[in-house]
Specification:
By secondary structure, the protein is an all-alpha fold. Helices cover about 75% and strands about 0% of the residues. The protein has helices at about 10-20, 25-35, 40-55, 60-70, 80-90, 95-110, 115-125, 130-140, 145-160, 165-175, 180-195, 195-220, 225-230. α4 (about 60-70) packs antiparallel against α5. It is elongated. The model has no long low-confidence stretch (mean pLDDT about 95).
């Protein structure tokens, strides 16, 4: 910028680094400078939204994301703005608006994992297991070894009664993420269902050792594990 401060992309790049460093006021100034040079910059508007969001200035973040979407409503990168808007609405408990934003992100970008995962969480909360599984399977195809996706998919399969699919998902997580307590807990449920009490008890102990009271509380919600909890 000391050589040439007429390039909007340089101001955007500097602003991105500044907001990642938590220097928000300087970042905002950089993005606004980029907008002075290029008023129709989607990236400057989007990054202003990110910066305001990190500051907790949610109304300003929403406004900037909407302006960004007005500049590039169908661009693949617009999926990020929709997803971030969805996250804000979800945090506020505005489930319908959040779902619509996540859906838009998924439709615009065939490779946006976050929107599919977030939609799945909403479906799980509503008890819509088939729709949740559909979204989680889409996300899993995009990133087969993703920890959270695989755990949620295993849990959705578990409640749907698709035990073999649940077993594969949980086994993957246990192998790749040995500190995750949800995987051994899910496997404990599956072994208990199969009347394999010793295996179920050992896996439950592993889950509680990793997850403490959170794991114990979750286990208490499965009647099939009650004997192993005593």
């Amino acid at each position: 910028l000391r050589i040439d401060d007429s390039q909007p992309s340089l101001h955007i790049g500097l602003g991105d680094v500044l907001q990642r460093a938590g220097r928000f006021d300087e970042a905002i100034a950089s993005f606004n400078k980029a907008l002075q040079l290029h008023p129709d910059s989607y990236k400057a508007r989007y990054n202003l939204g990110v910066t305001f969001g990190r500051q907790g200035r949610l109304e300003e973040a929403i406004a900037e994301y909407r302006k960004a979407l007005g500049l590039a409503p169908q661009a693949v990168e617009a999926a990020r703005a929709h997803n971030n808007l969805g996250a804000i609405h979800l945090e506020r408990g505005e489930i319908g608006e959040a779902s619509a934003r996540f859906q838009s992100a998924a439709e615009i970008s065939p490779f946006n994992l976050e929107s599919r995962y977030n939609l799945a969480l909403i479906h799980l909360e509503r008890g819509e297991l088939d729709r949740a599984i559909e979204r989680l399977e889409e996300a899993s195809r995009l990133q087969p070894n993703h920890e959270l996706v695989s755990v949620r998919l295993g849990t959705a399969y578990l409640f749907k009664g698709r035990d073999q699919d649940a077993f594969r998902s949980y086994l993957l997580v246990r192998r790749l993420y040995p500190r995750n307590w949800m995987a051994p807990l899910g496997l404990a449920v599956l072994h208990a269902r199969a009347e394999q009490a010793d295996q179920a008890r050992a896996l439950l102990e592993e889950a509680i050792e990793l997850g403490g009271e959170a794991a114990r509380d979750r286990a208490a919600g499965f009647p099939v594990l009650q004997d192993s909890l005593r």
